């Protein structure tokens, strides 16, 4: 079995790649930075019982369709056709919409959504001709509800839900199973970076839930792929949000926006007080 994992050098992608490698599958890790890819490969190789000749790495930016197509072609040339694609490469950069440069918004869409489309396109034709294959897109719990400061990320990740559902409708007749999962906050390098940028309004919604380990998320994803699940949800709250969203979301959104308005009101009155103090100091 040949498993291709984008974002395989870190976090959830690396944990998934490790699980498949420990089952004896051929695994290709794709990501941008060669140093991190080499480290990930060495980390997997060092595990007991791993056949290092079954792990390969390829440096590629998923946002570039041309790079993706040639990287996947060469991975398939050495390990055979892709049986399972895991599209885990992704980034997040929380900021309010008006403080987010267009380039930062666009990059999240290019990597998370268009990057996923690029890798799916690179394996899909082959899977269709073989009438076999599995594709797993890594979305996010952030696809299930709009979160303050996450306009680009929520847009990219909820689009993956629609992409997976629509592609699944086209692919099922050819024996290809297309799935999507919606992980919660997970202890990874991305999560640790994200926490430093997460606005307090978002923390009010997300901060009370303990993050999962990357290994636990990976085990649920791989188990879901084995069982042929179309959608994978994590934990009680996110599962409820997924299935009962239209019922739950209005009151949840009302509660969060009330908190947000209070914070903004507090900030505005503090800054008004500061500027009137300054006017007073300057005798104006
Ligand atoms: N951690 C969470 O709380 C959480 C929750 C829900 C969903 N997710 C999603 O899960 C996926 C994995 O996230 P993670 O937390 O494991 O992040 P991570 O530890 O930062 O790993 C991200 C991986 O994606 C690769 N990558 C990023 N941009 C890329 C690009 N343009 N081309 C190719 N590879 C790229 C990174 O390597 P390079 O930088 O070297 O390219 C790295 O291997 C993401 O799609 C993320 O949105 C994460």
Low-confidence blocks of residues: 279-284
Strand order of the largest sheet: 3-2-1-4-5-6-9
Compute the average pLDDT: 92
Within CATH, the superfamily carries the name: NAD(P)-binding Rossmann-like Domain
The CATH first-level class comes to Alpha Beta
Q: Can you list the ligands bound to this structure?
A: NADP nicotinamide-adenine-dinucleotide phosphate
Number of alpha- plus pi-helical segments = 9
Kindly identify the CATH topology: Rossmann fold
Encode the helix/strand succession as letters.
EHEHEHEHEHEEHHEHEH
How much of the polypeptide forms β-strand, as a percent range? 5-15%
Report the principal-axis shape: globular
Give the name of the CATH architecture.
3-Layer(aba) Sandwich
How many domain regions? Answer: 1
Number of strands: 9
Q: What gap, in angstroms, lies between the N and C termini?
A: 76 Å
Biggest pleated sheet? 7 strands, parallel
Q: Which structural category do the helix and sheet elements fall into?
A: alpha/beta
């Amino acid at each position: 079995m040949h498993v291709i994992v984008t974002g395989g050098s870190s976090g959830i992608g690396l944990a998934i790649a490790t699980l498949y490698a420990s089952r004896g599958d051929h695994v290709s890790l794709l990501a941008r930075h060669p140093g991190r890819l080499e480290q990930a490969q060495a980390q997997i190789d060092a595990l007991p019982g791993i056949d290092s000749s079954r792990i390969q790495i390829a440096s590629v930016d998923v946002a570039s369709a041309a790079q993706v197509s040639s990287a996947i072609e060469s991975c398939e040339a050495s390990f055979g056709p892709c049986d399972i694609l895991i599209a885990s490469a992704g980034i997040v950069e929380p900021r309010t919409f008006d403080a987010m440069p267009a380039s930062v918004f666009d990059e999240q869409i290019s990597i998370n959504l268009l990057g996923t489309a690029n890798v799916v396109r690179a394996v899909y034709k082959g899977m269709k001709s073989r009438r076999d294959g599995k594709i797993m897109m890594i979305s996010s719990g952030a696809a299930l509800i709009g979160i303050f400061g996450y306009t680009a990320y929520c847009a990219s990740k909820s689009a993956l839900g629609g992409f997976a559902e629509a592609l699944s409708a086209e692919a099922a007749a050819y024996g290809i199973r297309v799935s999507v999962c919606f992980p919660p906050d997970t202890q990874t390098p991305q999560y640790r970076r994200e926490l430093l940028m997460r606005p307090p309004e978002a923390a009010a919604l997300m901060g009370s839930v303990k993050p999962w380990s990357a290994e636990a998320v990976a085990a649920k994803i791989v188990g879901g792929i084995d069982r042929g699940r179309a959608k994978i949800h994590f934990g009680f709250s996110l599962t409820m949000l997924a299935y009962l969203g239209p019922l739950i979301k209005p009151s949840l959104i009302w509660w969060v926006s009330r908190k947000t308005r209070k914070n903004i009101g507090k900030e505005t009155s503090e800054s008004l007080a500061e500027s009137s103090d300054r006017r007073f100091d300057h005798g104006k």
